[in-house]
Amino acid sequence: MSQALLETNGLTVRFGGHVAVDGVSCAFRAGELTAIVGPNGAGKTTYFNLISGQIAASAGKVKLMGEDVTRASVADRCRRGLGRAFQLTNLFPDLSVLENVRLVIQARHRKGFNLLSMASSHSEITTAARAILERVHLDPLADKPVSELSHGNQRKLEVAMLIALDPMVYMFDEPTAGMSVDEAPVVLDLIAELKHDTDRTILLVEHKMDVIRTLADRIIVLHNGALAADGPPAEVMASDVVQEAYMGKALDHV
Description:
The chain has 254 residues and is an alpha/beta fold. 37% of the residues lie in helices and 25% in strands.
């Protein structure tokens, strides 16, 4: 079995007397999409925040490609290959759609704007950015300010920026939240396409069971911050205790 790209070992965070994530140990390997599910307040987004470095762990470790990054900053984890798309859009509203993606590519290659490199490398960056916008169906809006985009198009742009980052670990926190029935398939198709790169791993927090059934290779269930189940989708979904205690009636309507 290949080495895990990402691991959490006994990962825990406490807020006062409340344990929000309670000793979660999981390994995420290349070529696998893991859906993280559970009721509201189960600790899913907090677990994501611990992995990506938005909040500090009270105990336990996070390892990325075998290296301990538990105390590493968000930016350092990003440089090491961890990429996260936020549940709430985190974009540059006054810049154009194209400029948002171009900045990510530029930062990844650590290229600054200067007269000597402007003509060659920055034209290549622009070409690469436009290619990514085509993938998310935003190329007609390339020159439009982000502040003028619909919510759905902002979510697409967020995915485009994550693709531009080219991480080893993709983290999606409810990527279709707030999107219309017509808009959501574009993002879901992109995530399905990312699965074809078997060198990477994908983590997905999602409430929609039909989406999980379509995309997930594995499901982990959190309840009261602890790991309650971990396994293949059919096995986890068929578990009586998971359906009753952790999924509620969500499965009854799929």
